[in-house]
Amino acid sequence: MRIKIIGTGSAVPENIVTNQMLSEIMDTSDEWITTRTGIRQRRIAVTETTSGLASQAARKALEDSGCSPEEIDLIIVATFSPDRCMPNTACTVQAALGCKNAVAFDLNAACSGFLFALNTAQAYMAAGIYRTALLVGAEEISKTVDWKDRSTCVLFGDGAGAAVVQAREGTPMAFVQYSDGTKGEVLTCSEKALKNPWAEPAEDPRMLCMDGQEVFKFAVRKVPECIHEVARQAGISVSQIDWFLLHQANSRIIDSVAKHLGVSRERFPMNLDRYGNTSAASIPLLLDEVRREGRIREGDLVVLSGFGAGLTWGAALLEW
Ligand code: COA
């Protein structure tokens, strides 16, 4: 059993925040952000919610797939920035869309979240448990960053992307996924401090913190490795892969991966200039864009690769 993407959708907040706008409220510049990251603007939520964006993207993906809400038997929302700890975001999406036959749960693997959701759906389908899944990556990172920390807040944006995937006869796609908790401290985002009548009163811990250079080195080493690995699993060479849809964190990371793999940069679509790093939403947001532009054709080989906090990373190879 293999999986096929049969519908995609996305949703972003209305509010556009340019680099110039950031330079008016903190010590940064369009030049610094553009040359170091490739990001020119991002969407920052004002009234939107994580679950609202997730539901909007999911609804569009469902419409695009032509499936009825009842046909969906699994919903996974990848997010590290839900509106509420419970109910989970996936149950909120289920209720909004009327997918009454679906089991719904969230998954947190930070920026690798959508990829891990895809691989989870693939495993359920290979086992014959579910047939049609709605996968969503949705984030409001703007509520997790410290807006006084210019080294992180300029990098991120809010948004959601979704895909409907269905089981098909055929050999399974190739995928790899990895985690290394021992390196977790290079990218963290704390929740609230322990507060109860027995614990010492503590201040709420810092929000998103990152060692940018360590994350950079990790990404440029691990992404090419795992793309080579899925190609090997599938018995093809990297040069036969038509499209490389990478987590949209930094254009210099994408340049470096293309160079390591010896593949033309044109086969790496990019939209981080407009959305910044949207964590779990970035791959499905890009997927929806390239699909609607008609750039990917039936039979194309597409690799998706994500990396992020945990540390977590991985890749999946699909035939379109
Ligand atoms: N505007 C202007 N200057 C800034 C700035 C900003 N927004 N943020 C940091 N700086 C300054 C620093 O204070 C530092 O100044 P100093 O030299 O006077 O100390 C200087 O710029 C260089 O900082 P540094 O951290 O060395 O820059 P860098 O070249 O490593 O680029 C990142 C920083 C974050 C862009 C880069 O490390 C990166 O992209 N890492 C990967 C991050 C990522 O992808 N994370 C998500 C993974 S899912």
From TrEMBL:
Segments forming a coiled coil: none
The keyword Cytoplasm appears for this protein: yes
Biological process annotations from GO: fatty acid biosynthetic process
Pathway(s) annotated for this protein in UniProt: Lipid metabolism; fatty acid biosynthesis
EC identifiers of the protein: 2.3.1.180
Main location: cytoplasm
Residues that span the membrane, as ranges: none
Pfam families: ACP_syn_III, ACP_syn_III_C
Active site (catalytic residues): C111, H247, N277
The family this protein is said to belong to: Belongs to the thiolase-like superfamily. FabH family.
Function per UniProt: Catalyzes the condensation reaction of fatty acid synthesis by the addition to an acyl acceptor of two carbons from malonyl-ACP. Catalyzes the first condensation reaction which initiates fatty acid synthesis and may therefore play a role in governing the total rate of fatty acid production. Possesses both acetoacetyl-ACP synthase and acetyl transacylase activities. Its substrate specificity determines the biosynthesis of branched-chain and/or straight-chain of fatty acids.
Name of the protein described by the UniProt record: Beta-ketoacyl-[acyl-carrier-protein] synthase III
Annotated organism of origin: Candidatus Limivivens intestinipullorum
